[in-house]
Amino acid sequence: MTNTTNPTNDADQILTAEVAAEEAANTYTEVADAMAQEALRENSGEETMASQNMIADEESAERIVEAAAENITRDVDQVDAEIESAAKMPPCNPNPDEPMPLSHRNPPRIDGKLRAFSLRMPQVIRKCSGIVIFGRRIKSLVFSTDLAVIRNIDADAVLGVYPFTAQPIITQALLNCSDIPVLVGVGGGLTTGQRAVNLAVFSEMQGATGVVLNAPSSPETIAATVSNIDIPVVVTVTVLNDRVHEQIRAGASILNVAAGRNTTQIVRELRELYPELPIMASGGPTDESIAETIAAGANAITWTPPSTKQVFSSIMENYRNGGTTVAH
């Protein structure tokens, strides 16, 4: 059996397929164009909305700025009015030719009945500038490790240095009992090198406000201590020599001048050489010697209080003479 094909029919079928493909392509193009137009319309709508929102935001910002400007103007006018009113008020001292009453010059003092008896730092110390450590101004430092004295004195801070190797348990006792900042000794004489550095680090962790290194401390120990803690490193000065300048270059934060009768002179020389360097110094036993040390350039004064034995001696003498209360 022979299989035959008709060429005419094949051509018609091909033509029909081409026409169908062309129509399908045209339909696809029309659909794509329609979708694109719809997308354009949607985008246009979104852009319009975004534009409107942006305009609204700008208008809102302008209103806020205008309101702030009005508030500032109103506040300035109020301050000006208060200044003008204050200028018209009579002075606190109605009679400027006479000295102001003491009640107006001195802050009121409140003492309890039991705490009225306590040690007082010399008032002349208040004339110095002080040293601000972590936001607290320190003018007076009591040089003592006697816990009873520390709890009953009106000093701004404690200089807790003692003639034995530094021990953390002593530092902790001072910090626990003191209600004012404590600068603690960590070595420099008996205790040197890495041990002094370690003690300084531990003292900072315990809560010390500063650490004190004694006069023999090497510049290397001072530099190592400074680089390991974030509290002031106080270096004691007993004589002004080349080592002191090396200690300052090593990073000493504060100098503590304790040079006996030469203290005032050394403070004066250091202040001339280092105008901005914080200096605290022992002021001596009298108001005059303290004032002289301040005038020489000391920013703060360390004061040695009477010992517990001396205070008791005074109290007992009063009792022996028939007294029944402690003299203030």
How does this structure look, described?
The chain is an alpha/beta fold and 328 residues long. It has two domains: 10-91; 121-320, TIM Barrel (Alpha-Beta Barrel), CATH 3.20.20.60. It is built from ten helices and ten strands. It has helices at residues 7-88, 102-105, 147-150, 168-177, 193-206, 219-228, 242-249, 263-273, 287-296, 308-320, and strands at residues 131-133, 136-138, 140-143, 157-160, 182-187, 210-213, 233-237, 254-257, 279-282, 300-303. The protein has an eight-stranded parallel barrel with strand order 3-4-5-6-7-8-9-10, surrounded by six helices. A two-stranded antiparallel ribbon has the order 1-2. α7 links the parallel β7 and β8.
Which characteristics define this entry?
disordered N terminus, TIM Barrel, two-stranded antiparallel sheet, 2 domains, 328 residues, 10 helices, alpha/beta, 12% strand, extended
Short overview:
By secondary structure, the protein is an alpha/beta fold. The protein has helices at residues 7-88, 102-105, 147-150, 168-177, 193-206, 219-228, 242-249, 263-273, 287-296, 308-320, and strands at 131-133, 136-138, 140-143, 157-160, 182-187, 210-213, 233-237, 254-257, 279-282, 300-303. An eight-stranded parallel beta barrel has the order 3-4-5-6-7-8-9-10, surrounded by six helices. Strands 1-2 form a two-stranded antiparallel sheet.
